[in-house]
Design brief:
single chain, alpha+beta, Nucleotidyltransferase, domain 5, five-stranded mixed beta sheet, 14 strands
């Protein structure tokens, strides 16, 4: 199909007396095309009047589309089953030209922001190498919409506690906050609704009010509304994280802060400015931070287990033995875990950021060398036996470790034998049992009875 400019050129060359063959050679087109243009004697591109094969089935297509859930492959199959003769390509081209089954494309808009008006916040999943192990993490970032100042952190989890810690650090890095913070309808902040009807969680709304901003959310599907903060995630993944490994999470975020300082001082060609220089204009219009901000913490209630540990996010933290079986209050901050029994008894641990099932024990919570578990008082039965016959101590000690019954039952039975039978028969049976290593008290009792029968039931011989 020749364009309007080509047709005008052909007519102009023809008026100058250039032949058809030469015109075709100069424009690298066929002589037949030159003849058709000269015959029409017009530079207007003619419209193609050609009926489309799918036109007779338009109403049927409109009915089938919602029933087939917008799947044109299924619509084509149903049309063929009903006797239609058209290809799938003809169907899709017809639907494309007639805007059937798809919303019309609209040009993207552009948002302009005044200094100190808005900051955008969002998160994105990434993979990082921490201590030689690949971990899944969440990258949280904020961007000032006017100056494009960027700040981000990479965290193992991102819950409300982590969100408050991050936004608190971001406000400190920017040395102020704007009027509003735009979010992407994240469940961490949103209680109900979306867009203009979004209501933040009271906990997060109170946090925002304390610092000096308010949360707003864009409409679902309006990704351009948060484009200021969405764009840097690709840059972070392919620049900051590329080829880097980290010893721990704290070192990672320290390097991220230094990287932000360097990036914010670099010229950006898409804004034709340096973010740090634009920030100098925006900084006086940001709301100043309060003189004092309380420490952000998360409160838990736990019961100390029998081993002397408190469990928090699968990690276990030690407490003194006096805490055993008691309910304690656990205060989790950014860097520490405080376990409080009362105002005078508080244990402080360094917080483990990831749920790694680690056991943390402070040196003062370990028993001193040579001090095991306190020995229990001897049984009353054992005390009574040894008080009556002290020389039975070796046999009693062996009986406690080698007998078949429970210790208490064994000692009670031995004390009964001592009290019910004569002393000489009892001691003789004990001596014999100890010699042969016999600790079955039922058998010991039979040995005592045999001695009693021999000693006390002997019949004297009488002469007739």
């Amino acid at each position: 199909m020749l364009s309007q400019s080509q047709r005008a050129t052909i007519l102009q060359l023809h008026l100058q007396g250039v032949g058809k063959r030469e015109i075709a050679r100069l424009l690298q087109i066929s002589r037949q095309s030159v003849r058709q243009v000269l015959k029409a004697n017009s530079s207007v591109v003619p419209k193609i009047e050609r009926a489309e094969k799918a036109t007779p089935y338009r109403q049927q297509i409109l009915e089938l589309l919602p029933r087939c859930k917008g799947n044109l492959v299924r619509v084509h199959e149903e049309l063929l089953a009903s006797g239609a003769t058209l290809s799938y390509q003809a169907l899709t081209a017809f639907c494309r030209r007639e805007a059937i089954g798809r919303a019309p494309l609209l040009p993207a808009g552009r948002y302009e922001f005044d200094p100190g008006q808005e900051m955008q916040h969002d998160t994105s999943p990434h993979e990082v190498v921490i201590g030689g192990r690949k971990c899944k993490a969440q990258t949280a970032a904020v961007t000032l919409c006017y100056s494009r100042m960027l700040f981000f952190q990479i965290l193992p989890t991102f819950q409300r506690f982590d969100c408050k810690l991050f936004l608190n650090d971001a406000a400190g890095y920017l040395n102020g906050v704007p009027e509003r913070v735009m979010i992407d309808n994240t469940h961490v902040v949103v209680l109900r609704g979306s867009g203009r009807q979004m209501e933040p969680v009271p906990e997060m709304a109170a946090f925002a009010q304390r610092i000096g901003f308010r949360f707003v959310a864009h409409e679902i599907g309006d990704a351009n509304r948060s484009a200021r903060v969405e764009r840097p995630f690709h840059f972070i993944e392919n620049n900051f994280l590329a080829g880097r490994t980290f010893a721990d999470w704290q070192l990672l975020n320290n390097q991220a802060r230094q990287w932000c300082d360097r990036v914010n001082a670099t010229y950006k060609k898409h804004i034709r400015a340096v973010p740090r220089e634009l920030y100098a204009v925006e900084r006086p219009l940001l709301k100043p931070l309060p003189v004092w901000l309380p420490e952000i913490y998360r409160l838990h209630h736990r019961l100390v287990d029998i081993e002397g540990y408190v469990s928090l996010h699968t990690n276990r933290y030690s407490v003194p033995p006096s805490f055993l079986g008691r309910q304690v209050e656990v205060r989790e901050t950014r860097d520490h875990v405080e376990i409080e029994l009362d105002a005078r008894h508080i244990v402080r641990h360094k917080r483990i950021a990831t749920p790694d099932q680690v056991r943390v024990t402070l040196p003062e919570h370990r028993p001193k060398r040579g001090e095991g578990a306190c020995k229990r008082d001897p049984h009353p039965e054992e005390t009574a036996i040894l008080a009556a016959i002290p020389e039975l101590a070796p046999y009693v000690e062996k009986l406690k470790h080698r007998g078949r019954k429970g210790i208490t039952l064994r000692l009670r039975q031995l004390l009964r034998l001592l009290r019910e039978y004569p002393r000489e028969a009892f001691l003789g049976a004990i001596e014999e049992a100890d010699h042969y290593g016999l600790y079955d008290l039922d058998r010991l009792e039979r040995m005592i009875l045999r001695r009693v029968r021999q000693e006390y039931c002997r019949l004297e011989d009488h002469d007739d």
